[in-house]
Amino acid sequence: MNDAAETADALAEDSSGGGMRMTTGGAAQRRRLLRDSAGLAVLIAGVVAFPLLASPQLVFVAVFAGVFALAALGLSLLLGLAGQISLGQAGFLAIGAYTSAILTTRYEQNALLASVVAVAVTMVAAAAVGTPILRLRGHYLALATLGFGIIVAVVANQWDFTGGQSGIFGIRKVEFNGRLYDSPREQFWLVWSVVVGALILARNLASGRVGRALGAVNDSEVAAETLGVDTFRLRVQVFVLSAGLAAIAGSCYAHLVGVVNAQAASFLLSVELLLMAVVGGLASVWGAIVGAIFVRGLSEALTTYIPRVIPGASGEYQLIGFGIVLVLAVIYLPGGFVSAGARLARLPGARRRPRTTVPDGGGEGPTAAGDEAAGDTSPLLPREGRPAPGTAVLVVRGLELHFGGVRAVQSVDLEVRTGEIVGLIGPNGAGKTTLFNVVSGVLPPTAGTVEVGGARVEGRRPHAVAAARAARTFQNLEIFSSMTVVGNVAVGRHLRSRAGVVAGALALPARAEEHAIDAEARRLVELLGLGDVADSPAADLPFGRQRLVEIARALATEPDLLLLDEPMAGLSAFERAALARLLRRLRAGGMAILLVEHDIEAVMALADRVAVLDDGHRIAYGAPSEVSDDPAVIEAYLGADAEQTTLGGPA
Amino acid sequence: MTQAAPRLTVEGLSAGYGRIEVLHGLGLAVAPGELLAVVGANGAGKTTLLRVISGLLPARAGRVLLDGRAVTGMAAEKLASAGLAHVPENRLVFPGMSVADNLSLGAYARRRGSGEAVERDRRFVLDLFPRLADRLAQPAGTLSGGEQQMLAIGRGLMAGPKLLLLDEPSLGLAPKLVSEIFAVLGRLRDQGDLGIVLVEQNARAALRIADRAIVLDRGQVLLQGTPKALLDDSRVQAAYLGRGYTEVAR
Amino acid sequence: MTAGVIDFLQLTVAGLSAGSAYGLVAVGFVTIHSVTGIINLAQGEFAMVAAFVAIALLAAGLPLPIAGLLAVLVVALGAAVVERVAIAPAAGSSVVAYIMLTLGVSITLKASVLLIEGPQSKALPAFTGGILSFGGVLVRPQDLWILAATLVAALGLYAFLERTVTGKAFRACAEQPTAARLVGVSPARMSTLSFVLAGTVGAVAGVVSSPVIQTDWNIGLFLGLKGFVAASLGGLASIPAAIAGGLLLGVVESLGAFYVSSGLRDAIAFFVLIVVLVARPGGVFGRTQAAARV
């Protein structure tokens, strides 16, 4: 099986010019890419052979399956990769089709040039539409895109420029040197080679930096943002790309059929495209292709057979099949055909990946702790260009945060300098995590200022705070549950790498960078003592070790300020000691660390200074020994037990 | 009411979220009229324990018995009419509805039962928390945190429960209100055969009113015993308070 | 009154009549969304199916009032079936999955009607004939029927939610689902109930507006979307705001179609939708919540 796959891989590389050698990554990723390449080889062989073997009618059906597969592929990227739904994909298809039609009929341009312009025009339109509406989520986005599609249809129907209700006729077919290419066979090869090209680009994009970042956003948007991922910008980019693919489909459609009218923007077509993406499966770029073939086949079958059962049937009654299949697919086939197929292939024999069961506290803790002798304080992860020791990296002044009537944080001042650990303690609900959320940009403050590395960041989005070199972990764990441990940490390298949507899709320039990301991620995973589970799904780890994953992930951003929210919770005594050593060594390397921790002993032992929050107020601030003698602290901390002032004696 | 069967028995209970197990084979029992305090550090599994008992989260292994009857796997909405009331973390009052409506919804599971018993419990609750009586028409969302906690407890009592689960009633409240609420819990304990499980972060306050207490550590019962014995046990301070606590206090 | 003023008033009345139907459909969105978090894209189809059922029952010889009431009943029960068959089995799915499920239901319903009834539009007869004139402003009696039915349906729903134990349990489930479970309210039952309520108000809208709007198999899309626009104007959270949103949209659309362009009538609503969604996510009548950042 493996041999066959490798052979197929070699074949695929040959036939596509070698532009798709896989990037590095875990063994799992390598296997996946191998399977993909095998699939591509089969697809390409099929594309070459199909028209030679099938009947012309069947080839004709397949041409349109290919056209719609392009638009469905765009939708699949948008849904599967960016987690955003669109019910207006046909609107972009129509813009592409109309642009092509107008350019060839009114301005006498050839089909190829018209197509290129059509795609460009559509992508510009998508950027203009997407920038406002992608601020919406879920239902609102779905309905806004639906509204967009309907507006396109209504305008196309009403506007003279687009030919009104009769649309545009006589669109030029594809021709080179005066020869028309319009036999079903030629159309098939033309369309499907575009499909194969688009599939390769989509696959590269999904498996590189952008795909990883978007996967992270789907798992935990807040964590991805705090690691520097500008989620909004990425969403707009994928939206534009998705519209571009719809425009290619629209353009192909216009030149194949020769006619375009407002039907091209119809809601029902948007639904059909959505069905293709969903039925095929969103987890893989292959889903859209499989889905398009299935849905076009279903449509043909229904239009053939329904009139035989119900003689008077007219109109778009095949929709009934679409509706039922959509409901059934969502309920019974949530991963679509592709993942159902993958499950089926895996059925015989045991599971390939044995489930990693790591007992609670089974890890060794951060290995970078250095010598077991607690005294090792050699600097760790220093960074060139980090502000001089003693520079205030975090300066919080007069911070206020009110939720409705609740004043969660009240006039809090705080400073953390390079090479310093500041402990932040206080009873549950005192506002510690809220303060973290404000500093890291997750919540905008009601008043007050936050400076990170000299830049004012209050009210900025988390990715901007991350760019100012602040990184954080989360008390309630925001792990990327669909990724491995290394994958989680690799997301942390987002800001320190550059491949964007275009470079990622073309894969070539991004390859070396992926190597570097992987190597750096593995180094940090080892540093945190997670080497034994590097390629395990992060979600399989016990909570304590997931916290270490979050720390590794935060360190991967090369921060100057590290915000740790209860990093010791759930760790064994041994792991705690190792983590404490790690933090001391990071401090020696010049890191500024703000530490929220329930384990008071750890805070007192580690921190240079301690701030105590109670009910949103900073009630004490100073050296650990001063703070621990402060009567206000003792009262706040030991709970509301008016009769007891010390913990010494029993009640 | 048989003396033999405990109000609540939990045997070998395991539960978790996703692929992570939080409770590992945990067991405990609460007798009628007993107040059991459950203390432990953040993440020890205290809230998870209550969520499994009340059916909000399925058990992966083990049994939950209410008055000797197995209720494991029963949905939360069914358990409400089986005599269990759970006052959840963060109170979760119905913010847009009046205090009176919140209380009457507490008796929702008894809507086919006697109106008299409900009315008696209503008077009892308003007597326990006179502040609520003054605010019956006010939307619950406009109450202070302490009043919302009182309302949440009152709503739980309106179910006429045999077993009351309380999750962090002191969370985020001013000391004075905490004493007020804990005084009421003391009254409830002495009231009769109501079994109470009190999950608390504020161990001192909880241990002062508990008949018995257990200390949870990473999903298992680390220790159990009388409050006094536990307060003296250095392992408690290590597991829950953090050893530093004693230093802070001295 | 000048002709201009009369035009304006007449358009306003027509807008209020159409807007009432949007408002009722919008109430259905709010009802289901408040308890389940789902936007039911089949909401408009409830109205469309109810109109066709009423038309069929009338054709079968039943008197109009009975046909209308039966149609509402059939759709209310049908909505419960939809919830049990298509929505409940996917409990716990993502927002996107629910969008696709209700979309699937919507498409199935409309294609079924297309297969049974064909593509032509049909209409119920007006409940009462003639035409009324108020100082030169002509009003179709059916417009008054629509406004009255909307008022009755909305008040009935309000009374149910505010006065009955089940209604309060329903609101509890919307406000605080976990606590509602803990007091014994079954979320599954409330989910079914939400579809029944939404089906009922949607069906009322479909039946009373059929004489005015001419029902065809595809009208559910526009009714549903405009209902959603109306619900969004009210922030998707409040029943009175949803009705107000419907009336406002109806009037804007009616005036816009006359003074701007009748061909763009349907685009107006969606343009309003996009602008409202982007500018005021909390709705025009709703409170503006600080946009959630997380």
Explained architecture:
The complex is a heterotrimer of chains A (651), B (250) and C (294). Chain A folds into 3 domains: 38-266, no CATH class; 390-469 and 559-650, Rossmann fold, CATH 3.40.50; 481-558, no CATH class. Chain A is built from 24 helices and 12 strands. Chain A has helices spanning 2-15, 27-53, 56-81, 89-105, 111-133, 138-158, 184-207, 209-219, 221-226, 231-257, 267-280, 286-309, 319-332, 336-346, 432-439, 462-467, 485-491, 501-506, 510-527, 543-555, 573-588, 600-606, 624-629, 631-637; strands at residues 175-176, 179-180, 392-403, 406-417, 420-425, 447-452, 455-456, 470-472, 561-565, 592-596, 609-614, 617-622. In chain A, the strands form 3 sheets. In chain A, strands 8-9-10-5-11-12 form a 6-stranded mixed β-sheet, sandwiched between helices. In chain A, helix 11 packs across helix 12 and helix 17 crosses helix 19. The model of chain A is unreliable at 1-25, 349-362 and 639-651 (pLDDT under 50). Chain B has one domain: P-loop containing nucleotide triphosphate hydrolases (Rossmann fold). Chain B starts with 7 loop residues before the first strand and ends with a helix. A 6-stranded mixed β-sheet of chain B has the order 6-7-8-3-9-10, sandwiched between helices. A 4-stranded antiparallel β-sheet of chain B has the order 2-1-4-5, with helices on one face. Chain B is globular. Mean pLDDT of chain C is 89; it is low at 286-294. The termini of chain C are far apart. In chain C, a hairpin with a 2-residue loop joins strand 1 (132-134) and strand 2 (137-139). In chain C, strands 1-2 form a two-stranded antiparallel ribbon. The longest helix of chain C is centred in the first third of the chain and has 34 residues, at 3-36. Chain C has one domain (3-292): ABC transporter involved in vitamin B12 uptake, BtuC. In chain C, helix 1 crosses helix 6 (165-175), helix 2 (43-59) runs parallel beside helix 4 and helix 3 packs across helix 8 (187-213). Classes of the chains: A alpha/beta (651), B alpha/beta (250), C mainly alpha (294). At the A-C interface, helix 6, helix 11 and helix 13 of A face helix 4, helix 9 and helix 11 of C.
